[in-house]
Amino acid sequence: RTQAEMAHTCRGTINLSTAHIDTEDSCNIVLSNGGRTYHLKANSEVERQRWVTALELAKAKAIRMRNNQSDDSGDEEPASQSDKSELHSTLKTLSSKLEDLSTCNDLIAKHGAALQRSLSELENLKLPAESGEKIKAVNERATLFRITSNAMINACRDFLDLAETHSRKWQRALQYEREQRIRLEETIEQLAKQHNSLERACRGAPGLSSSSTGITSTTKGSVQSAKGEASDEDEETEYFDAMEDAPAFITVTADPKHHRRSGSNLSGASEGHPEDWNLEDSVFESSNQSSYNESTCKDLLRKKRRRTRIPDKPNYSLNLWSIMKNCIGKELSKIPMPVNFNEPLSMLQRLTEDLEYHELLDKAVKCESSTEQMCFVAAFSVSSYSTTVHRTAKPFNPLLGETYELDRLEEFGFRSLCEQVSHHPPAAAHHVYSKRGWTLWQEITIASKFRGKYLSIMPLGTIHLEFHSSGNHYVWRKVTSTVHNIIVGKLWIDQSGEIEIVNHKSKDKCQLKFTPYSYFSRDVPRKVTGVVSDADGKAHYVMSGTWDEKMECSKIVQSSHGSTSTEGKQKTVYQTLSPKVLWKKYPLPENAENMYFFSDLALTLNEPEERVAPTDSRLRPDQRLMESGRWDEANVEKQRLEEKQRAVRRRREAEAVEALEEGKDYEGYIPLWFERKVDAVTGELLCVYKGGYWEAKDKQDWSMCPDIF
């Protein structure tokens, strides 16, 4: 079989040279090799015998290959035309050396015979006069023999050196190809095992709840308390239980008819209307009131005439494995990638895209209670992942000094600025000011690792959010994103981990759990749960939903301790009022599947604008060419920009060495619009906005901007 066929059909491998071939009955065949056993079934006894014969012949062939220590090329061909040319040239050179050796051998035999005859004649001489002439002839023959022998020795030496050089080269190449083949076979085998496990899980799905999952039920709530059994076929595959390490609590919806409003500050239910619990609050608005942002913003977008589509994504084929096989274990930001893997946005623009649901923060400004405000901040932190569910393409790595602005002060009340402040490791600083009462800033470093089957993306750094009127200062970090099926299958992305949001003024906390996807979980995919508690640890709200669709908030009326789980953890039962939707994802625009699954905001991020800085991502030529569908030109331009950046980095490194030799300090790259400071709240060193950008834009004075494009 070819490698492409094996990628879709192979269920594993077995070494035939050491395998045992047995027959159980008239139709079954058993292949065993150590701890691995395969049971094969033929349709008839005749077909079984044909398979046994073929396997025995293959086993004999494998044994011969092992004994001869040679590889059977089979139906494989040299990897490329250059490999064929190099092999042909080497064989031609070796053949020429062999011909030289053969010629030298003939000459040695010929001159050796002549020398022997001359010596024989010398022995038979009687006349002294003739002896001098014969001795002279012997000397000439001996000289010719010595010259020929030297030529023979030199030719042998050349042949030996050439053979040793190419032998080492071939050994290294052969070892490399063996390692690559083993690595690919292991990857395909693991994928085949996972596929087989999934098939068996699907076949056994109707009985899954009774055999592998236990349910703890209450009046109007339920929780999963036992793990689904992982497959015993693949011990390396990771399966995540839905409630493992999750907050151990059960949510029960309270009956509002039996709930009396207590003396606490709960905005409680009243007179039999279960949805009235939030109407007294200034921020938990009804559905018709909360539609303000969607309708108003779309009207403003029409007035500004923002674009609503981009050119369709071209359908270019690409050999993924030929690129990825050399990337295993490497830092993704250091791997040269063609634009085929990208989307026409930079990482700075993707960072700005987190503001798509900025209206959640506008609503949070109106909150009088810090715990209520925390609910909206938590919903905002989850909403930033909603755009990633279909976005498996990689954004462009920003060049050092690249910036991106999003000025929506008149439309939405905020303006945003990002700058790439470091290249290795890649780090971006972000600052957002809203005239509606909040400021957000962050410095994010992206760490990513390609592991063969999946790609892990780990954002490092903290996000800060401060509300102007109350002074509430919230801090949180992002979770890990994982792109699956890198080699085989359809790409899909998942979010997993925990987010702890802390209000450093009031000490309120919100613990959010992003449940990783599991084959055997009964939970809804992409589930997010959490609890909002005050400084004393008292729980006030339960957060629930999915990171790709919506988040809901339920006010806690009463809490009590439930039964102990199988892991020894005691569950807390929260009695809550009816949940309210805080955030719901906007539908994607029409034809989004052909426009990289961009949202309405994402479609406008790379729209050309006047008066932006010359370092703005909108002016990046390779990204613009890709958006226009000219991918070949974009690849050429991308290589030019990257080489230009490498040249600048080498110059800085030389300047640093020179400064070190002279005993001077070298500051390195200094960001244009940000500066490093120690955060007064967290004590961390991070880049914060130092001002000057919007003033420079008003004056159109970009003289301090470097030439990076």
Automatic annotation (TrEMBL):
Among SUPFAM superfamilies, the record links this protein to: Oxysterol-binding protein-like, PH domain-like
Q: What residue spans carry the Low complexity bias annotation?
A: 209-222
Name the GO terms of the biological process aspect.
lipid transport
Query: What Pfam families is this protein classified in?
Result: Oxysterol_BP (PF01237)
* Nuclease in keyword set: no
Keywords assigned by UniProt, alphabetized: Coiled coil, Lipid transport, Lipid-binding, Membrane, Phosphoprotein, Transport
- Write out the coiled-coil annotation as residue ranges: 174-201
Q: Which PROSITE patterns match?
A: OSBP, PH_DOMAIN
Annotated PH domain ranges read 1-60
Per UniProt, what is one GO molecular function of this protein?
cholesterol binding
Return the annotated region ranges for Disordered. 65-90, 202-237, 254-278
Q: How does it sit in the membrane?
A: Peripheral membrane protein
Q: Where in the cell is it found?
A: Membrane
Q: Superkingdom, according to UniProt? A: Eukaryota
Q: One GO cellular component from the entry? A: plasma membrane
The text of the family note is:
Belongs to the OSBP family.
Q: Which PANTHER family match?
A: OXYSTEROL-BINDING PROTEIN 2, OXYSTEROL-BINDING PROTEIN-RELATED
What name does the UniProt record give this protein? Oxysterol-binding protein
Q: Which organism is it from?
A: Balaeniceps rex
Q: Which gene encodes it?
A: Osbp2
